[in-house]
Amino acid sequence: MIELFKGINKIEYEGPDSTNPLAFKYYNAEKLVAGRKMKDHLRFAMSYWHTMTGGGQDPFGNATMQRPYNGLEGLELSKARVDAAFELMSKLGIEYFCFHDLDIAPEGNSLKEKFDNLDIVVEVIEEKMKETGIKCLWGTTNAFSHPRFMHGAATSPNADVFAFAAAQVKKAMEITHRLGGVNYVFWGGREGYETLLNTDMETELDNMARFLSMAYDYKQKIGFKGQLLIEPKPKEPTKHQYDYDAMNVIGFLRKYNLQDKFKLNIEANHATLAGHTFQHELAVARINGMLGSIDANQGDMLLGWDTDQFPTNIYDAVLAMYEVLKNDGLTPGGLNFDAKVRRGSYQPDDLFIAYIVGMDTFAKGLLVAEKLISDGVLEDFVSNRYRSYSSGIGREITDGTTDFEKLAAYAMEHDQIHNESGRQEMLEDIVNRYIYRS
Length: 438
Ligand code: XLS
Ligand code: NI
Ligand code: NI
Known about the structure:
The longest helix is centred in the last third of the chain and has 28 residues, at 348-375. By secondary structure, the chain is of the alpha/beta class. It contains 16 helices and 14 strands. It has helices at residues 38-42, 48-53, 74-92, 101-104, 111-132, 159-178, 201-222, 246-255, 268-273, 278-287, 314-326, 348-375, 377-385, 392-399, 404-413, 424-437; strands at 12-13, 23-24, 32-33, 36-37, 44-47, 96-100, 135-140, 183-187, 192-193, 227-231, 240-241, 263-267, 291-295, 335-337. The radius of gyration is 24 Å and the shape is globular.
């Protein structure tokens, strides 16, 4: 095997005092945390699109990335990317990858050619998976880049586009199944609208539900056991994406009776674009029994788009892992780094360093969150805060044994209300202390 990322060795754990940028400071794959290996809590995945396919283009400039496969084209390029992907994952100790059909094989000039190309590259990927033991966390289809999807895919006003998208999802699901993928993701690329002046929102939403329902039926038909996931995002590329946020998607799924067939893939940067914290979206998914997987990244507070940066914010990672632990893990989901290096970080070692800092951030987040939970510091405070619902009138409310007349009579006798402090700053201090010392 030819080494593509020359000069970069297998990344090892060196501990918090290490100053080596090419070593883990916190991510220690085999370390036991609350009875489970760190790697099994985190289930890190490489995103094929940002890591292998993306070249650092932005609306103002061309690709900048220096990559070992630069200069190749077509299937040769796709195959070289497979080699690079598996070398990178092996060196980083990442055990899963996520991909779109379009990331791994050239589009071709017809649907038939596209599928043939996919079959060729999937065979190469399959070989590499056997050789390395690396697995597929999820597959998906790209039904948003090609001009045919200008008005949407399943929500396009053009039924031919709906059919084309169905053919793509069918194939992408077959490939994911063949590669032993444990989830399949639907991110509604252009499922949304620019203006209601030309949009029949009701028909579009009904069609999206019809599409998802047929996808579920096909999954059953081929015996694909992976979890189907919907990834909410409020805007970009369309002004209004239908899968706006977690609660919106849950409401949609319930309306069309699809709630038992799908879970959610929560992305940090999509949460903040929707005006929520990452933790909020994870918590909404969790309390509804729908937290499936995570796209780990972060946005920029000053920019209003999906900047997909590698996650380095320790505070957010702690609170995210807090939700993951309260969810009793993510399996079969995981933490996919839907993240890209900045355009100026064009060297191959920048890519490794970016993954390392992302993995370390979540490893440290896990350690802190585990401590917070095992000490019960936040949970005890919160449950004490709601204690008025465990007896007396509160108990009657939760048991459903009271009504407005009884409540009004009770209030008449208890109209001098005493509240307690919410202690927000004290709790923030506790979280900080756990971050300093865990
Ligand atoms: C785009 C999405 C996309 C999905 C997969 O914003 O995050 O990358 O994760 O289609
Ligand atoms: Ni994503
Ligand atoms: Ni995104």
